[in-house]
Amino acid sequence: MTDSSDSHRPRVGVRKHLFRTTALVIALALCVVFLVPRAGAIADAFARQHPLTLVGALACGFAATGLTFLSWRALLAGAGHRLPIASAQRVFFLSQIGKYVPGSIWPIVAQADLGREHRVPAVRSVAVGLVTLLVSCGAGVCVAAATLPFVAPNAFGAYWYVLLLVPVVIAALHPAVLAFAMRLASRVTRRDLGTVSLPVGSIARAFGWAVAAWVGFGAHIALVMAPFVRLDAPTTLLAIGAYALAWLVGFVVFFLPAGLGGREAALTALLVGGTTMGAGAAVSVAVTSRVLLTVVDLVFAGAAIVRRRRHAHEPAAGSTVDAPG
User: Which pLDDT score is estimated for 72?
Assistant: First the structure.
């Protein structure tokens, strides 16, 4: 006699797989929706680039995104879940495709869903995802505040309100404040997020990785700017701070997929105001950067899918697992 619960599990698995596939297809379709109408502008932007600087900018994009992953993983480990590197990469990089769906919550929702496969409770995934965003925003604000005033004093004329977040974010990263915020969020979400505590060391490591990631993204922008301006220390500092500030502006515009439009508008304005670049060249930099970083997201997600499928088809002999990073 067959247990009904056993027959129910395959159906649940099929439905979950169908849901994930559908969500992934929707996110990828939105990527295409973004790219296709801008094909002419994208082609023009890439025509103005040098192949070597494009390769360098793409490499910096991969490195910076990898550093963002390390920031998230440091917090996940601090929450008590040190996943094998391949498993952690699958959870993180697949979830990042969710940011192309309007709204800022979808990557966190995807992390909660994918994390269950590795025995990470959904509440901990949500808590770690929220703190990762807070750490990333905090590091971005600090990087922008530490760079732009020295190379573009008027940069904060239109975005002065971002500076107000510096003391707020630094205070919010204190474990006691985080614990209070989690208890408050528990009441709102009706999930026990208050049981998640993160040690100071994990938060500090995550913040360090996030700062390094912003520097990497800034180097990416500097290389994309290379065909239009002479790269020197002030220009590179401007690129680092401008991208961090532009990303924060795009993040605030949460109803657009991955900050589409908001980030590009802010980056264009900051580059025009802080360099000798014209508006057309600055727009070209913003468009090229967006396409390259979209490619980075898709490649990382595709690699995670391929690696998962390859692992699933390997023979089950022995007890080989991915080595922790």
Answer: 95
